[in-house]
Amino acid sequence: MPAIAQATAIKESTDKAGEFLTAASNWVAGNGAKFAIALLSAIAIYIIGAWVAGLVRSALSKTLQRRGTDHTVSTYIANILHGLILVMVIVTALGQLGIPTAQFAALIAAAGLAIGLALQGNLSNFASGFLLVFFRPFKRGDYIAAGGTEGTVEEIGIFTSTLASLDNKKIVVPNSAITGANITNFSALPKRVVLVPCTVGGGNDTEKVRSTLLSAASGNPHVLSEPAPVAVLTVLGENKYTMELRCWCKPENFWDAQFTLNEASKKALDAAGVAGPLPAMRLVQS
Fold it and tell me: Residue 34 and residue 31: Cα distance in Å, rounded?
């Protein structure tokens, strides 16, 4: 009996497979050409639509920039329009395949709600990107510290912003991390101050140290003449003190000014014979 039942089950499976293949063959014979044309049309619609969306994004961004709109704002608006056009293109392509677009739109709405609940962080990033673009705490090209990192702003995207670090690393930061904490924009004001603290031995004459540091700043091409550089005594210690050189520069010249002033100050202090602090001594009881 088991052998007969097994043979019967195999025969039924074979018959069903044959029926399926026959039905598929009949469908291809009757609708294959029509479906192939519809599929090719849908692919063509998507390719052309994506190309047009790219052209519209590029044209809109250039038009807004020609009218004086900030690069960050124009790019952000163009990217949103590009995304909306792509959604319309995809819906149109699916309609070409015979999928009811009205039902598909309802499905998108339901799926969008579910995805929105699951991806609240990305929605927060989107809202934060909107705030960054239109309240403009910084713009493309500014050097900022935000979101636990710092660098030069390359792009403010829909969900993330891209920074370039001093050592030329690409840093992608979620927009919500930027708006959720303090933002320091080092490029917002027309001038930045460069600080060069120098700790010397307490036996050095303060006026000599001051004049030596000021001479190190003299002639530096990155240092502004107004406000004039100053050297101030900031920290008093035991057998030592710290004299700090303070100079002003343009924001884009900050690091060049910092590095050249560090080196020039060291050379000037050595040439003037300014002694460093004595090493700390430790008493050991025997």
Answer: 5
